[in-house]
Amino acid sequence: MQHALQAWLAANGAPEPILAIAEFDDTGRGMAALRDIEAGEAIMTIPRKLMITRSLVLEMVPPALRPQLAGQSEHAVLVIFVYLLASNSPLFPAAIHEHWRPYVRSLPESFDALYFSPVMHEHPMVPQETQALVAHQKELIAQHTLLLESVLAGSAPVDRARFEWAWFVVNTRCVSFPTAMAKSASSAHLDTQALAPLLDMLNHAPDVSVTVRENVTLADGSGPHYSLVTTRAWRRGEQVFIHYGDHDNWKLLAEYGFAIPRNTHTVSVQPLLERAFSPDNETYAWCWDAFYELGLASPAVMSLPADFGLRAMLKLLLQPLAVLGRGRASKEFQRWQGLYYSGSEADVADEGQWVAKWIDKAAAAIRGKLHEWRAVADGNSAIAVILDDYEAILE
């Protein structure tokens, strides 16, 4: 597969590679440096004509389908293209299938994104924002499936498993353009993302960065090309990484299907907080209204280790019920607002240690659930990484 893909790239104008596909113990398949690489060098250069964009797809599809697809999102169009190629659809002539076959054969056979673990979608260990992200993925897949059905027009049934695979090919492997690419005659829209053969083999690391150069012309006059330039040096044989974005482990798991040790920095207590002080309970509802107004009711705040914001929330929620019953009109709430706006850690300290006790109790409750959560995860290595991070944070 590696030699076929790189031979195909070379035949279509890609320069001599300085990276090669390799297997690594910690990440699996990745890209290794064939020689020492200095900061400022291009680690990957791909001919623009091999970057699969919405405009390129619209040039390849039968003319009758172009109006139907032209107004769709880039993601949807790319997913349908990948699905049709993988299905060897008669909507494309044999020449197109033959041209893109080395790329299709290089794609992973499956993905480990959270979407493919239904038992985990709404499990209490999964943060609500991650659950919402997976729910949104489900909605988009359903919408894009309907679009594919209209494209096929009854000529063939939709293979659900293959379509989900194609959807995550695009979701996990697209690259973005820093500036919109020129639109083609077939599309009224600019291209902002593309599938990039071979470049999509590069794995993620949180502490590296690259810069993008568009429309590069090589020394031999060939081009345009799309290049990634490293900002650090790499040694021969070392795995070369790029940066997918500043994502925590739950986001990485939901979008890409992996997690990185020591990349989880907080543990959510939002479910515990909402269970103990329900926003639907009129005693606490006005408190939550105040938290939303102040920007406190966010996953980042409702997490351990506890910061000023979480301690301030608990300072109010743990007031005596008689005080809470008086709502915003109470002098205690006015005093709490003053303490909050002062921004002083000392001002939200709890003399009776009730805030500290609640935090300790929440940490103990989560720690007590970790064994149960590991059993539910059933050997999922990415979730095991996240739970290991949780244990370290709680300790």
* Helical content class: 40-55%
Coarse structural class: alpha+beta
Strand content: 5-15%
Question: Which oligomeric form is depicted?
Answer: single chain
Give the SSE string.
HEEEHHHHHHEEEEEEHEHHEHHHHH
Distance between the termini: 46 Å
Side by side, the strands of the main sheet go 1-2-9-6
For the report, how would you describe the main beta sheet? 4 strands, mixed
The residue ranges in which pLDDT falls below 50 over 5 or more consecutive positions are none
* Large-scale geometry: elongated
Q: Determine the mean pLDDT.
A: 90
How many strand segments?
11
Number of DSSP helical runs:
15
Rg, Å, rounded: 26 Å
Briefly, what is this?
The protein has helices at residues 2-11, 54-60, 66-70, 74-86, 94-106, 128-152, 160-173, 249-255, 270-276, 282-294, 308-317, 321-324, 331-342, 354-377, 381-394; strands spanning 19-24, 28-33, 42-47, 174-181, 191-195, 203-204, 210-216, 225-230, 239-242, 267-268, 303-304.
Question: In words, what does this structure look like?
Answer:
There is one protein chain. By secondary structure, the chain is an alpha+beta fold. Helix content is 45%, strand content 14%. The protein contains 15 helices and eleven strands. The chain has helices at residues 2-11, 54-60, 66-70, 74-86, 94-106, 128-152, 160-173, 249-255, 270-276, 282-294, 308-317, 321-324, 331-342, 354-377, 381-394; strands at residues 19-24, 28-33, 42-47, 174-181, 191-195, 203-204, 210-216, 225-230, 239-242, 267-268, 303-304. Helix 4 crosses helix 7 and helix 11 (308-317) runs antiparallel to helix 13. The longest helix has 25 residues, at 128-152.
